[in-house]
């Protein structure tokens, strides 16, 4: 390792987006109910949404501690052979929808493996998901639902999943402004 070379590294000029904050992390867990209980009862997270086995193999629990729809999510793995451990993915928030488009195009130009783009379900964020050189699954997103003091969440029938960013823009969920601005 060349410590001095690493310390001298700076981002190049012209990157068309800027990460605003660490958005959320998703962990694989062996006991979904026990882990959800631990995060709510020991750390004080609030439950946001739950996917049953029909929506996500192993089930999935979305947890929050602030206004973001989720700050942490858990994917159940059970005790089956070949169970994954560790991180499912980590997400970073961008400031605008245009930055998500620009990020996707930038990643493509750099030959990055994109594994998903568009809008999934709970949280309704528009995102591009990709792999880093070590195969870590990362997400850049915009527009994650916010939850107010009343703790009311968007109902599942309003999620509007989309398989591309363009489809996500064309079919926004109620209240999500997908008009593009530069």
Write up what this structure looks like.
With 182 residues, the protein is α+β, with helices and mostly antiparallel strands. The protein has a single domain, classed as 2,3-Dihydroxybiphenyl 1,2-Dioxygenase, domain 1. The protein contains four helices and eight strands. The protein has an eight-stranded mixed beta sheet with strand order 2-3-4-1-5-8-7-6. A hairpin with a 7-residue loop joins strand 3 and strand 4. The N and C termini lie far apart (41 Å). The model has no long low-confidence stretch (mean pLDDT 92).
Question: In which range does the helix fraction lie?
Answer: 10-25%
CATH class: Alpha Beta
Give the name of the CATH architecture: Roll
What are the secondary-structure elements, in order, as H or E? HEHEEEEHEEEH
Number of strands: 8
Strands in their spatial order, largest beta sheet: 2-3-4-1-5-8-7-6
CATH superfamily: 2,3-Dihydroxybiphenyl 1,2-Dioxygenase, domain 1
Percent of residues in beta strands: 25-35%
Overall structural class, as computed from helix and strand content, comes to alpha+beta
**Given the structure, what is the number of helices?**
4
Backbone CA Rg: 17 Å
Indicate how many domains the architecture comprises: 1
